[in-house]
Design goal:
By secondary structure, this protein is of the alpha/beta class. 24% of the residues lie in helices and 27% in strands. The relative contact order is 0.10.
Length: 354
């Protein structure tokens, strides 16, 4: 498009100073626009890359309601409690009577369906591309969201391992472990900065063993067996594909991710909680008042307690204006009617007084 000015920053041959200034102005404007466009493009690409790079959660399907799911047997010693369901298939032996706050499914259609969902979830987690190494010992390490891989066994020998969501409650942590997962006594998995247990997954090639008093977090999906040591606590799930789950005085808490639908209010919409007037109230209709207050308009002195008196409607600005005008007009007429008549002046033809 020809804007009628030179495109270079120099004045054209024989051009006026004004033309030179216009040329420099348009050159500077083009530079600014190009810079802004480039910045916006880079920001958009970075945002898109960040969104595409986020690790998706592992869908558990019908397995999500289970605290414990095993293939061959479930054995318990002591007062074990689980908040979710207990399932077993194809095995049928559950011993030790753990306290199950959910439902128990032993080789029924629900348990068989859950085992199928577990296989799908296990394969999904195992197939994710790795974003880094988990090392061989988790002790003292801190991990950001992503997929961490240990080609053989993985150990939490002492202390704690920390999972840092960096303020993102949807952050997902997946650990791919080639063979075994083992934790030492009194070790911990810590969640910080919004990390949630429902988004932590441990895909274990063979067996997982949690040490005495371990405070573990996340869903363990083991190819074979899982053993929870004495008094270890699990915020998540113990899901074994083919072999046994062994429990001893454990507490297993299975919960869904916290809702992210902020802005909703219990008990009605925000407008309702603010006390929006009804259509009748908006029109100024009288509202009954119970228990008159002394000195209130329309309440006679000595009125009986508990009497109901209709509230006086509030006059509009237009009504008040007309009332004031009427009062002024009435006062003026009254003043005029009480004013003494002025005496008539005597006039004589041809005379001038003054």
């Amino acid at each position: 498009m020809n804007l009628g000015v030179p495109l270079s920053n120099e004045s054209p041959r024989g051009g006026s100073p004004a033309a030179s200034r216009r040329s420099r102005h348009w050159g500077h404007a083009r530079t600014m626009c190009a810079g802004a466009l480039g910045t916006s493009l880079v920001a958009g690409l970075l945002f898109a890359g960040s969104a595409l790079g986020a690790t998706a959660t592992v869908e558990l399907g019908t397995t999500s309601s289970f605290s414990v799911l095993a293939g061959s047997t479930i054995t318990n010693i002591g007062p074990t409690t689980m908040s979710g369901d207990l399932g077993l298939s194809p095995g049928t032996s559950v011993t030790g009577a753990p306290q199950v706050l959910g439902q128990t499914h032993v080789d029924d259609a629900v348990a068989i369906g859950a085992k199928s969902s577990l296989t799908t979830a296990f394969n999904d987690a195992a197939s994710r591309p790795s974003t880094g190494s988990a090392g061989t010992d988790l002790a003292g390490q801190s991990f950001l969201p992503g997929v961490r891989t240990a080609s053989s066994s993985l150990l939490l020998s002492s202390g704690a391992v920390t999972l840092n969501a960096q303020g993102d409650p949807n952050a997902v942590f997946i650990f791919q472990i080639g063979t075994t997962l083992t934790t030492g006594s009194a070790t911990k998995v810590l969640l910080i900065n919004g990390a949630q247990a429902c988004n932590v997954f441990w895909e274990v090639g063979s067996s997982a063993t949690l040490g005495t008093g371990t405070q573990f977090v996340g869903t363990i999906m083991a190819g074979e067996s899982i053993t929870a040591g004495t008094a270890s606590t699990i915020e998540g799930r113990l899901l074994a594909q083919t072999a046994a789950v062994t429990l001893e005085s454990n507490t297993i808490t299975t919960s869904a991710c916290a809702s992210q639908t902020g802005g909703e209010h219990e008990g009605g919409t925000p407008e309702e909680t603010k006390g929006t007037p009804t259509p009748e109230e908006a029109k100024g209709s009288p509202t009954p008042v119970t228990g008159p207050v002394a000195g209130s308009p329309g309440v006679a002195s000595g009125a009986p307690s508990g009497a109901t008196t209709p509230a006086r409607p509030i006059a509009s600005k237009t009504t008040i204006k007309h009332r004031r005008k009427a009062r002024r007009h009435k006062a003026h007429k009254a003043h005029k009617s009480h004013s003494p008549a002025r005496p008539a002046l005597s006039h004589k033809h041809g005379a001038f007084t003054g």
